[in-house]
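Running co-folding for pyridoxal-5'-phosphate.
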Amino acid sequence: MTKDATGQNWRPKTRAVRSGTNRSQFQETSEAMFVTSGYAYESAEQAERRFKDEEAGFIYSRFGNPTVAMFEERMAALEGAPAARATATGMAAVTATMLCHLNKGDHVVSAKALFGSCRFIIDNVLPRYGIETTLVDGPDLHQWADAVRPNTKALFLETPANPTLEIIDLKAVADIAHNAGARLIVDNVFATPILQRPREFGADITVYSATKHIDGQGRCLGGVILCDEDFLTDYLHTFLRNTGPALSPFNAWVLVKALETLDLRVREHCRSAVEVADFLAKQPQIEKVVYPHREDHPQYKLAKAQMELGGNVVTFEVNGGKEAAFRFENALSLIDISNNLGDAKSLITHPATTTHSRLTPEARSELGITDSMVRLSVGLEDTRDICEDLAAAIATI
Ligand SMILES: *Cc1c(COP(=O)(O)O)cnc(C)c1O
C-alpha cells in the first residue's frame, strides 16, 4: 500500500475529496472497497507483533478495515479533529461515546431538545447503569451552569436541534463544561461539518449520523465519532474493538465517496432551503416558519455566528392542528413522507406522531413540538417543483 499525502495544508474542499486515500498496488483512482472480515499474516511472528501493537496493520474488521480507515481519516481531516472512529449507525456513535467513558456515579447534563433515540439514551439507558442525568433548556446558559456538579463528566447537546431548530451557544457551554472538568459532546448532524465544526468552539467530541447528509442519498446507515488522541486511547479504542459497532466496508465505501460531494450538496441544499422557507413564510395557512438563518429566528445572531449557512431543514406549523398537518402531508406528490433527513429527495415528517411520539405530551409541549408542526428536509430537486408541490398541498388545508 502506498499512502497519499495527509493533506494537512489542504483546504476543507480538497480534504473532502482527497484526504485519507490509501491506494493499493494497482493505483486505482477511486477508493477501493475492501470487503473482508480478516487479514492473513506473513508469519506467526507477524501475527504476534500485530496483536502486541508492535507493528501497524489490520487484524480483523471489527478492529479496523482499510476502506473504513479511509472514511475515518477523511472525516478527521474535514472536521480538523485528531482522530475519528466510524460506527454502524449514528446511534452506535452516540451510545459508544457515552458508555466508553462514563461510570456508575457519574453525572451527565443534556439539552432537552434531542433526536428521539438520543433522548432515550439519556432518559432510559444511562440511568440503568447508575449514571445520573439532568435535562436543561439548551439555549438557557444559566440552566447548564446550575446543573453541573462535582461528578459531572459530560455535557451533551444538538444544535440546531431536531425538530425545533433551537440554537445552543457552543462556546459558552464548552466553557461551562471545562470549568466543571467535564467534556462537551456535540451531535452535529443538522449542521454537517461543512457548516459548523464544534471543535472550533471548544467542543471535545463531535458525533454524526453519517446516514443523513454525509451519505445524503438515502443509501446506507453510518456514524462517526471525532475526538482527540487521549479520549481515543484512554476510552474509545478499546470499547469499540470489544463491543463491535463496526461500520461495514461497503457502507464505508459509499460514505467516503459521498464526502467528495458533501460540500457541493450541502451548499445547494441550504440555498434551496432559504427559498423554500421564504415561500412558506408568505403563505397565510402556514404559521411560524422556523429556519436558523431567517431574521425572525429567535437566535438568528447566534445561528449566523456558529453556522456558515442555515442548513436544509425548515420547520413550520400548518394551521389547524394534526388533522390539517396530515391532510397537508397526504396531499404532497413530490415530497415524500419520511422521517429521514439530509437526503437528495425532499422529505417531510410530523414529529409529534413519528420521531417524537414516544415523548409524553407534556415533554413535547415543553419542547414546542405541537400537533401542527411539520419538519421539511429540503432536497436537491428544483425549488420551483418543491414550492409548486407545497402550494398544491397548502390549497387543501
Ligand atoms: C438520525 C440522527 C441520529 C441517529 O442516527 P442513525 O444513523 O439513524 O442511528 C442521531 N442524532 C441526530 C440529530 C439524528 O438526526
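Result summary
Residues 1-5 have pLDDT under 50 and may be disordered.
The CA atoms of residues 100 and 143 lie 26 Å apart.
Job closed.
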